[in-house]
């Protein structure tokens, strides 16, 4: 069957706070954005709406003085994007070609041409890569091993049992605190003797009678049976070298996230972890017309509100670019849709066909003397 060919001025990948904010802004600017989000898949860790769909209380998103549930907040974002005419497409993108504009995106059923592309594909939970962690049948993933307490914590399997949480950051503290609603005891296993989590989250966990800590220890293996699922973890005390089996009914891995950028490898500049590099002065990537926002380009703040903020910036950047205005690139240059490059000091313009045009009175005066 022939593939459907779509052409759009603005294509957005991802439907978390960044992607949907980019959609709201570009739809209101009459750019008729197409937003592509991946179908929900537990194995690939995709959830339309992004990570807030697997969060409960969101207490720090401004504008909600009493807090709001993550899924409820994302439903509001989506309705707002729909209200201004965002077009939604649920599909896996198999490949992108960013070699020239319009950029081309390939799904199973469509070929999509995009004059500008806003990447808001977010980040996914990291795994330890130890025996027993993989999805069933290779391991106990889905049978006692999880990376999402809000998704799996309420399962009957964990009721009143001992649960291990691995990690020492805010995610680990949040998961551990949440799991005490269901578990009999939650034990946080951390590889150092200090937490990375914020003070407030540490205090919450330290003050919770149901949470204990095992310090300076790594989980080397998750053990269990097909019938019972997880029955314990093999711990390695990094100080004494001692190894032992610690009995538990579940393991929640909470060691951070990695950006979803595999699709762009070899085409867009990334840091060593895989976060997309953007200009400090805009959301431009190294390819003019490709912008990135939210967790896919933010290894520092990673908050819903900062994701929404950069989503807004991406939409404005794409709009400027389509309006033939220059956008700031990571090199410090500014580039227009025609391919003109303005030097970082704004003293020279190089046209698309390579001509240098002075952009400062001094350079012009020098040229007049020659
Ligand atoms: P972080 O990177 O902050 O923490 C990851 C933790 O996992 C660290 O303690 C790290 O140990 C540990 N770790 C990493 N790799 C391994 C490994 N291979 N084996 C064992 N332990 C490992 O990630 P988070 O997801 O916790 O937080 C990310 C960001 O999101 C932060 O900015 C955080 O503030 C924010 N956040 C905010 C929340 C809120 O405000 N409600 C909730 C959740 C996250 P080590 O310390 O030794 O490096």
Chain-wise SSE layout:
Elements: E1 4-13, H1 17-28, E2 34-37, E3 57-58, E4 68-69, H2 70-83, E5 87-90, E6 95-97, E7 103-106, E8 110-119, E9 123-125, E10 145-146, H3 149-152, E11 162-166, H4 170-179, E12 185-189, H5 199-206, E13 211-214, E14 217-225, E15 229-237, E16 243-247, E17 250-253, E18 257-259, E19 290-292, H6 304-322, E20 327-328, E21 334-335, E22 341-342, E23 348-350, E24 356-358, H7 361-369
Parallel strand pairs: 1-2, 1-8, 2-5, 8-19, 10-17, 11-12, 11-17, 12-13
Antiparallel strand pairs: 3-4, 6-7, 7-8, 9-18, 14-15, 15-16, 20-21, 21-22, 22-23, 23-24
Helix pairs in contact: 1-2, 1-6, 4-5
NADPH dihydro-nicotinamide-adenine-dinucleotide phosphate is lined by residues 128, 166-172, 174, 191-192, 196, 198, 255-257, 302.
User: How would the global form be characterised?
Assistant: elongated
How many individual helices? 7
Percent of residues in beta strands: 25-35%
The secondary structure category is alpha/beta
The gyration radius over C-alpha positions equals 24 Å
pLDDT < 50 stretches: none
Largest sheet: 7 strands, mixed
Query: What is the number of beta strands?
Result: 24
Distance between the termini: 64 Å
**Which distinct ligands sit in these coordinates?**
NADPH dihydro-nicotinamide-adenine-dinucleotide phosphate
Mean pLDDT: 93
Percent of residues in helices comes to: 10-25%
Quaternary assembly: single chain
């Amino acid at each position: 069957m022939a593939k459907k060919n779509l052409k759009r001025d603005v294509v957005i990948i991802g439907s978390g706070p960044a992607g949907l904010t980019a959609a709201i802004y570009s739809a209101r600017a009459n750019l008729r954005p197409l937003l592509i989000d991946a179908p929900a898949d537990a194995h690939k860790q995709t959830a339309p709406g992004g990570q807030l769909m697997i969060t409960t209380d969101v207490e720090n998103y401004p504008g909600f003085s009493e807090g709001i549930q993550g899924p409820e907040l994302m439903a509001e974002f989506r309705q707002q994007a729909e209200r201004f005419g965002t077009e939604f497409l649920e599909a896996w993108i198999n490949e992108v070609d960013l070699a020239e504009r319009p950029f081309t995106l390939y799904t199973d059923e469509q070929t999509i041409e995009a004059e500008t592309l806003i990447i808001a594909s977010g980040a996914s939970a990291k795994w330890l890569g130890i025996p027993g962690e993989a999805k069933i049948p290779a391991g106990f993933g889905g049978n006692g091993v999880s990376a999402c307490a809000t998704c799996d914590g309420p399962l009957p399997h964990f009721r009143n049992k001992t649960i291990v949480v691995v990690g020492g950051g805010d995610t680990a503290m949040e998961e551990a605190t949440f799991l005490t609603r269901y578990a009999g005891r939650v034990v946080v296993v951390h590889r150092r003797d200090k937490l990375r989590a914020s003070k407030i989250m540490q205090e919450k966990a330290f003050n919770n009678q149901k949470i204990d800590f095992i310090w300076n220890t790594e989980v080397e293996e998750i053990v269990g049976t097909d019938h019972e699922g997880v029955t314990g973890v093999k711990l390695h005390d990094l100080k004494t070298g001692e190894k032992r089996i610690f009995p538990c009914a579940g393991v929640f891995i909470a060691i951070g996230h990695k950006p979803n950028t595999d699709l762009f490898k070899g085409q867009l500049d990334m840091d060593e972890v895989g976060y997309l590099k953007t200009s400090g002065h805009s959301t431009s990537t190294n390819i003019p017309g490709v912008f990135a926002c939210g967790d896919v380009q933010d290894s520092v703040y990673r908050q819903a509100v900062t994701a929404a903020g950069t989503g807004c910036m991406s939409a404005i950047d794409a709009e400027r670019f389509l309006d033939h205005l220059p956008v700031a690139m990571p090199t410090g240059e500014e580039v227009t849709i025609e391919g003109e490059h303005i030097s970082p000091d704004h003293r020279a313009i190089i046209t698309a066909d390579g001509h240098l045009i002075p952009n400062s009175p001094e350079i012009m005066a020098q040229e007049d003397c020659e």
